[in-house]
Structures
1.
Amino acid sequence: MRNAQTRISDTRRIAIAGIGIELAASPGGPGITLEGAVARFEAGGAAPDTRVEVAWGELVDAPAGRELFDSGAHWRLHDDGGARTFTFRSQAMGPFPVRAARFSRDFTRGEVVYHRPYFAEGAAFYPLGYPLDELLLTHLLAGGRGVELHACGIVDAAGRGHLFVGQSGAGKTTMARHWERHEGAVVLSDDRIVVRRHGDELRMHGTPWHGEAALSTPGSAPLARVYFIRRGENAGAEPRFRPLAGAAYAARLYSCVFCPFYCARALEFTVGALADIAAHVPGCEVSYLPGTDVAAAAVALEG
Amino acid sequence: MSARCDMRGVSAARTQGSRKPYEKPAVCLVPLRPEEAVLAGCKTPGGYGSSNFSTCGQFGCVLLGS
């Protein structure tokens, strides 16, 4: 469903965590739109890291090559030796894939093809609609650029980054809403955060992928501390912070990372990047009772 | 893998005290959620941007069997 105000164009650029993606419509292809939170990530400037063309086509049942991964739901990945192809299906639309996305092995070039018979004349899309933008970014990150975590990222009034990591239901959105009431705090995302090393510094970056609070912004901040929320356990009148370190810390991060688990090289880089975070950024478990000012306590930890 | 944890104001007593006592190695269970990790779940408009982000909004529900 498109909003009447939505701008449809031939080329758009976005940048997520400093990674540029150019979307370009092929001649006669579907129009390109940016809607919702991703529109805030539109960017111009430097040459993009990845260029993706968008076209109509007739998609067959399965692309060429061996199946590399089946998500168990609506997307699969095939590898034909020269490229990797994601296919996306919809039971509601019909037996053929709705969309296929073929990328070079380094994910710097790609093409998204929509199955023409399924759509009306003049249709326009955000061609990296869920979950393709995240799949593309996790592949690019795992190529040596960083990691995407299931986390809520908050920048305090002093510009320090607080990262609350946890799976669905951990309390990330609750934490984001709590911090929103603190003057000067900015929520980068209440559900997905990218962490990248920039020289001597580990920075956390906002993404367009948010949780129930619908909070996301393209900012970034140096990563000051990582927290794992323990709800209702060992909680007292004041928030409690229990330090985490070493393998236990890295393992907790691993349980909340998004990466191409089917690619050994990507996994090797990702595990190393998580170890880097665990070695250089203080980590802890935080437990607190509803109504206590966990944000103030977290800020106080930094002195 | 080396690690440090400088919980200022929290673990001061620990760092100022004597050597850390020996702790027997223990197995730590970390739960995984593979369906979340591989982006296999369904995201609704409330949890993932505009309706265009929602697989339900764009193509009908694509989570087979749902």
Note: Helices of chain B lie at 12-16, 34-37, 55-59.
2.
Amino acid sequence: MLPHGMRKFVDTERGLLDRAIFSSQELYELELERIFGRCWLYLGHESQIPRPKDFLTSYMGEDPIIVWRGEDGTVRAFLNVCRHRGNLLCRIDQGKADSVMCTYHGWTYASDGSLVSVPLRKEGWAGGFDLADWGLAEVPRLYQHKGLIFGSMAQDAPPFLDYLSRQAAEVDALVDRTAGGTEVIGGVHKWVMPMNWKFPADNFGGDDGHHPTAHASLRKVRFDGRARYRMDFGPPPENEEVLADFPEGPIRDYHIEHLPEARARLGKEVAERGTVITTVFPNFSVSTLRNMIRVWHPRGPGKTEVWSYCVVDKDAPPEVKEAMRLNNVRMFGPAGVVEQDDANNWLGCTRTARGWAARQIPMKIQGRAEAGEEKAGPLSRERLRVFYDRWAALMDAESWAGVNWKELPVPF
Amino acid sequence: MAFLSEFGSKSALWYEINAFLTHEARLLDERRFEEWLELFTEDARYRIPVRGSGGVAVEAADAHGANPLAIMDDDKPMLEKRVARIRSGVAWAEEPPSVTIHMIANVDIGKVDEEQREVEVRSAVFVYRSQLETEREFIVGRRRDLLARRDQKWRIRRREVELADSVLEMKNLSIFL
């Protein structure tokens, strides 16, 4: 067993991380329990399942999940696991179904998760059994936030909005700019990268410092039509042209046109910041600049399955949606010219964390002491610290009761 | 028959197109990207849609009433920017460069448009990619090309690659298919 006290691995006072958190199988198993078995995780977007009986399949950590809209219109989420022998129940990513039958022995479940039929139940099972006892295992906590569906496996998790706290404003910067809400543009980018999930999650969460180096080609070739490139995604400098971070043309014009509405809904600071790139702990990231939602599904200490969505305002004109789709696809995703360059960095950091000698020396983020009295804000180094403060607090606790979530710094 | 007759027979056309696709594969493998770009018409479209696990997202997307998400969806200016990026010296995804071997097979000629002097061509594409010390990946798909005969040369006017995989086992796609 691991010694208690995750502060041994994560020293946010001095800004030092032990590389074991990126390579240890034992710590990874504990992450599945204490991070992914406990936190609010993103499952999908309501626009993917608009009609009764529509479903999508997703993951919470390594657990397969089916999100199903019942005949009554209610969205529920279940382990996508047959209660009989544990076979993976639904094998496709999205669709509409009255019921789903397990292909092993034919146990069949309805859209509300109830077990509706079992072949040979009377003949094959001595005395039979009650179907009502064997419905799908339901994700105990579900919250729909402005079209986004989140779930938690922990009955005692804090209410979703308390969990998000002030960071809700950053999520809303993507999904609540206009009254009409948002929709996902068909399909999801999915690909597997040999990296620890925390590298991309902390990167989106606040590693603005990598831009000038990792994405140097963006500044050199200027392939995304932006007028201005900044070092960080905090509030724009005074006297700057409004929303200068967005690509020139339909996207920026659209955002400028809707800025009064966005200001009213989000507040001046977030609306005018334009580019909001953030991670909701642990593995849900957004980028307003690329109309993007991102989930980092863990697949072992050295492997991550990346899911990336394009999310646009439902009421935006078709040409604006198309410009947003192309901006998302061409810049991010497996072939995105910005994101391509992240891969070898995240892979490299993961790979060297396996070395014994490297694990004897810590890696560096900015510590609280170095940062002086500054409060957690949008600047990268503080936000990295906040990310790992949360990681340590959750990993140290036996349950949510042991996590003083409200006292932890908020990454915004 | 004016167009086909230039080639004498459909088998001669098939041979020509095989030679063209092999030449294209060689340009990519030898990283002669500027010459590769010249193979595309100015109005070319290059697309790799995402594939869902229940089928190709192109079909599923009809229900959404929108264009599907794609892994690549480029016009020629975007393809040119990709090449300029690779040549920038700071495109870290290709430093050091990927070694690729493009294998093209199952070449099948579909509709021949005599008036537009265009041919629909289907083929299978298998790309082996090696980078760094031990990173070995491959990606497989079906190409649907629209090849146009312009000024006695073949040009690619449309390419759509239907991938076999719904979840790519690739760190990134910094190469062309």
Note: The CA atoms of residues 143 and 161 of chain B lie 4 Å apart.
